[in-house]
Amino acid sequence: MNNTHKQLTRSALAIVISAIIVSGCAQESKDSAKQSQPASKIQSASKTDSSAQARPELSEVAGLVMASEPQADVYQGSKELHRSAKVMASSMVQRIVSSQHVSVSDRNLSLAPTTNDKFESVVQNGNMVAGETPVSTFSIDVDTGSYSTTRRLINQGQLPTKNTVRVEELVNYFSYDYPVPTNSEQPFSVNTELAPSPYNADTQLLRIGLKGFDVAPDKLSASNLVLLLDVSGSMSSADKLPLLKQAMLMLSQQLSAQDKVSIVVYAGASGVVLDGVAGNDFSAIKTALSQLNAQGGTNGSQGIQLAYQLAQKHFIENGSNRVILATDGDFNLGITDHQQLVDFVASQSKKGIGLSTLGFGLGSGSASYNDHLLEQLSNKANGQYAFIDTLNEARKVLVDQLSATLLTIAHDVKVQIEFNPAVVSEYRLIGYENRLLNRSDFNNDAVDAGEIGAGHTVTALYEIRYNDSHNRLVDPLRYTATESTQIDDAKVHPHTANEVAYLKLRYKAIGEQDSQLITYPINREQQLTHLHQASDDFRFAAAVAGFGQLLNQNNYVHDTDYAKLITLAESAMGQDRFGYRHEFVQMLKTASVLDKQVLMTEPETRWVNQ
């Protein structure tokens, strides 16, 4: 790349990032625009929602923001400046792209800078032959941290590095309008949908959807919460401790007199700030939070031990007993063996004390955000992992989805699906790479799996190829049972001959040690002819999963791109009550521009090294 092109590309990058910062990834709908309001305006911005009118006042939250600590992700740029910057950047990008002649096949880079942040590399699920391996087994996952970390990076003008995005967490960030459970003895409903896949020609997409029964916040059982807060020096930036304080205030405003709240802080040493105060003692909680300052090193292991001691001290029988860990994940002192921490929280969950993890901040100075550890801790402790990058995200997790955060309605939820080789030639599970289970684990109640909270929706997607597909990746074997033989065998069991797959789920009801089994046949009659015939939820989930696969540079996606996914997502917005889907479309568009910048970069060059 010559000097002229280098100067031009740098200018384009600067303009694009300026546009992103000015707009704050502004959303194009009225609903989503509400989310970029300052904290003091959250209440008025939410008045159109009937549920929001019943929320406690949030104005106290804004009072905790200090003048010297600006609120993260709140930008006040004008619409005119945003449009101008966007047009200028788009024009410049197109000129550079046309001058560079870089093909998509050369794309092996990312704009994400080198930091100390820790993300586990994902080994993508491969294409499986149904005649050889007909059974797929995995644990459900309701974490959402990967979505908000991806959003944070893109809002900063960076794409996540290859294979660091957990696709299932992107898909499950959104709620879907699945049927509510009709059987009071079954905590969640199950439904499936089958339509053409947008990722490859002559393939199908199978969607499995679960929805847990919901419980209004005022109907929740008593909660015993221990807030374990990181106040180490790495938490000093505005998107960490100041945002954490606001998030905890939001949570405390949802609690009642029956609840108990304790606060434990950890830095160079650990200490108790509040010891089992009533949940409605907002003044005490606010005072305690306002006195917190970021300083010292991080000994998270000692803090965790102290937090669990308080949780046990104030344990509520038949209530929700939970530690909420809020940190940037920089566990750099004390016990260095993270597996010991994972084992410790897993042992505590067996005693009825769960752990949810909230991450704050990415790539700030020498701090090391540990996405992998926070996810693993919550997975092993019957909890949920979320990354809080904005005040709106805190509201989503700790206010709008409070019931799901605090109340687990089923645990050790496992999914097993057996594909019919007489109908299906190949299949591929999209996401859930670190939640895979052995086939024998499904019936083994000693094997841990994921939890589902009140009102949670869980979605899983399989891309499948029928035996008559013209786009099969694997040829039939010559000397073993062929599809025709399998079809002949199916005649012995005519009731299964037209089944695409057989879906089985296991879960444990709260307080039970033995799992219960649910089964559902999936028939080819469910197959829709065209993708546009599928529900909004199906098409939107497909767009989100496609986005995650593009970010991970998935080797099995050939017939889609950002433009197609944007069109697909925009056609499936649904009611979008809180504007999250509109926000996603804006993120898609921004990522599309950033992806073009990657194409402009020479194969051995990163922007951060120029």
TrEMBL record:
Start-end of Polar residues biased regions: 34-53
Region (Disordered): 29-55
Domain of life of the source: Bacteria
A Pfam family it matches: vWF_A
VWFA domain: residues covered: 224-406
InterPro entries: CLCR, Uncharacterised_YfbK_N, VWF_A, vWFA_dom_sf, YfbK_C
PROSITE patterns tied to this protein: PROKAR_LIPOPROTEIN, VWFA
Protein name as annotated: VWFA domain-containing protein
Naturally occurring in which organism (per UniProt): Shewanella frigidimarina
